Give the backbone structure.
Amino acid sequence: MLAEDSVLLRDGLTGLLARFGHEVVAAVGDAEALVAAVTEHVPDVVVTDVRMPPGFQDEGLHAAVRLREERPTLPVLVLSQYVQRAYAAELLDSGDGTGVGYLLKDRVGQVEEFVDALAEVADGGTVVDPEVVRQLLRRRRDPLERLSPREREVLALIAEGRSNAAIARQLVVSEAAVGKHIGSILAKLDLPPATETHRRVLAVLTYLRG
């Protein structure tokens, strides 16, 4: 079962998999069609892109997680254009923890490696792109190490309960500059989109744990 919004890549993958003896029972272009096709065909393994219509955000990933919640043993291999640590972690935590893979799309160009990864996932193994592993390990060592010295200063003041205006006065910068620093902090700490207050609390918790 293949889900990829790019017709060119979808057709290419279909042909590639057929050449290696795999039958693609369905090839779809959006997350809703993916869920429907899995229900209809009950495939041995699912290959899906992260970004899918209509929003081209993380629809494919969330469809994969949803499918594994409903079918914990369904093998799923997710392809991503970039390393997205939060997505990788969410996928690896889904289902029963087996039969799951997260690869960068560049890996598809290394045909034998891609086909071997697919077979490993289909057999219940776990395959994670080496670059994703490196970034996950770096994140676990110290999520704060990605912050600049100024961003650490701003986060420390947030932890003290300071408002943006108070932080601006303390650091002798504009409130706009403080807002940019906070946005960068939240992005570097991989905090999920939510209310600004909630994300600030999560950032402070990360700072205190560090």
